């Protein structure tokens, strides 16, 4: 059969190509949708751990607000759990161990439910909360029915708090007592040093002759020089005071140091200061046992030492634990500690003198103290009333009419340890007689506990000139947070407290300030302390 000519043929329909393009377009759209879906799903999987970490914020849920909401199940569970814990304690005290066990079990269930709600970031539902709330309510009602009512609960909690407070106070007193005992004990190294020096003193006669020459030196009574006094039986500590003073003085050869110690330490103290050079400064050492006027008929403190009740108070086995431990230290009855009230009698020819404790370090030239105007007062001292507990009423018993009629309870306290004394004004005001009067009034220890500061506050009342705080910075023996700028600006830093710099319990931050003035090259120091 012949084909027709082209012009007579039927036109071909091209619908197939249109369907193909339509199918391809649909596949492309489906692929794009699938790609977007898979991509978003992948991002959800990647972000899932992060959302888990912040489950509390999931869906805008804030668990803290949920707990604080008074109508929420979380709040009800938390309150019931707190009450149940109190009843657990009471049930155990009444030996109802089964009830205590049941309550503890429900408390754990409650804690678990609250934890799950916080982790998943959704509020607790009524289906979850109702069983636990019902069972806890039943157990709490059961506890109340057993007469564990609210009043009983409050009384029990109060007794527990009081018991904890008593245990805490007892532990604090015991800790303070142990610290006081450590502070009182002479370290083995210092005892070794003292033994070696006393051996030299006894064996070397030239040392004793040299000491006699210094005693008769005209420099010790020359009022054109600068005089300092230290009363101590601690050789190393006294040496640091002297060494730090001369090292920071503009003219060390114009300084004279008057040291008074006891009979036991006299030889070793002499040997140390005679065999060491202190830049030309004069050092005089005296024995307190040579002061014949220092006797029971004149000094009230000696009467207290000899009194049987006082000896039992300090040295007896039965001691009142309510009394602050440091106030039972025999140091408070030490004659060396009270010798500061007899300075004009020890040095009758001197006009001015600076008193230094043996636990201070001098960082500036102290000769400027002698030119300060005390405005007719006897004592120049740094006041300590920046802290409220250093007012007079904190040291002295103002319920006694003898005290309340003569003194202001809000008057500022001041510090011993670095004081400039005008001895001419002292003799004029007869301060030592005032000290004796108040010591005799306090024979029964009702005016103040013990120590040298309370009678000094009374004897020097109205006779103390306040000095700039930078002359004397205290607290390096107990306060670990003193500002470095205050320490650097201080003329004298004071290691008052139990953490003395020569002890192992010293505050490490401050110890280098003291150690820099120790003569560590001395062979005895190397033998006793370093080795």
From TrEMBL:
Membrane protein topology class: Single-pass type II membrane protein
Which family does this protein fall into? Belongs to the glycosyltransferase 8 family.
Designated name of the protein = Hexosyltransferase
| SUPFAM superfamilies recorded | Nucleotide-diphospho-sugar transferases
**Localized where?**
Golgi apparatus membrane
Q: What class of enzyme is it?
A: transferase
Q: Name one GO cellular component term.
A: Golgi membrane
Instruction: Kindly give the InterPro entries that the UniProt entry links to this protein.
Output: GAUT, Glyco_trans_8, Nucleotide-diphossugar_trans
Species classification: Eukaryota, Viridiplantae, Streptophyta, Embryophyta, Tracheophyta
Q: What is its main location?
A: Golgi
Q: Which EC number(s) does UniProt give? A: 2.4.1.-
Biological processes annotated in GO:
cell wall organization; pectin biosynthetic process
Q: In which pathway does it act?
A: Glycan metabolism; pectin biosynthesis
Q: Where are the transmembrane segments?
A: 20-38
CDD domains, alphabetized: GT8_like_1 (cd06429)
Does the record's keyword annotation contain Transmembrane helix?
yes
- Gene Ontology molecular function, alphabetical: polygalacturonate 4-alpha-galacturonosyltransferase activity
- Provide the alphabetized UniProt keywords: Cell wall biogenesis/degradation, Glycoprotein, Glycosyltransferase, Golgi apparatus, Membrane, Signal-anchor, Transferase, Transmembrane, Transmembrane helix
